[in-house]
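=== RUN LOG ===
request id: a7f3
mode: sequence -> structure
chains: 1
length: 238
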Amino acid sequence: MEVDTVHGFQGREKDVIVFSTVADKLNEFIDDPNVINVSVSRAIDKFIIVTPYEYKGKNSSILSLINYINYNNLEVVQSEINSVFDLLYKVNEDKKKSYLSNRLIFSKFDSENIMFNVICEILNNSDYNNYAVKPKVYPIRKLVRNFDVLNFDERRYINNNAHVDFLIYDKFNKMPLLAIEVDGYTFHRSKKQLYKDAMKNEILRKINIPLIRFSTKDSKIEDKLVNKLNEVINSFVD
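=== RESULT ===
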């Protein structure tokens, strides 16, 4: 598999070309007929174009290509994969505002506000009456009973106000059940942040607190969280 810009493939061919327009709004660069022509003509056996559903316009070259695909009875698929984090895209700004308008806002990051409300909605299910969630208010150092299991860097890290994004806990005995992290796709790709994430993962492993991470690029968030939550609860039963 090789990934490059359209111009990076100019003069070459591949058996299969997957052409993604990337941006959620159409612009002159994306819709340049010369760029589209180059991308299509690179494919030997199969050409796949991935675009947002919102692309429209009488003079759109991409729309003309999609209409051509339809006219020739080739396959057009509306993706069934969706994510609550899709609300973070600019094209869904109105939907995001509507979603958050009647929900609790506690963070300057919309991704965390969305995740918190997803967690609350799941915990409102009668199967999880015993559990509640704390958002970004529980320092990791308060979860540690035996600091001897941590090395010097780990102890220094948690003493510098390190926390988990969310902590699901048992309402009756106050015991932590599951830590949840929301990773902004771009921010959490830096070497510095990857190092901190790895350290947090290891600390939580050492103190036996299960962790699940969600990237803002992930889909089916609710299903993944429910499955992890059930897995943790069943491990206590076993």
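=== NOTES ===
The two ends are 43 Å apart (CA to CA).
The first helix runs from residue 33 to 41.
=== END ===
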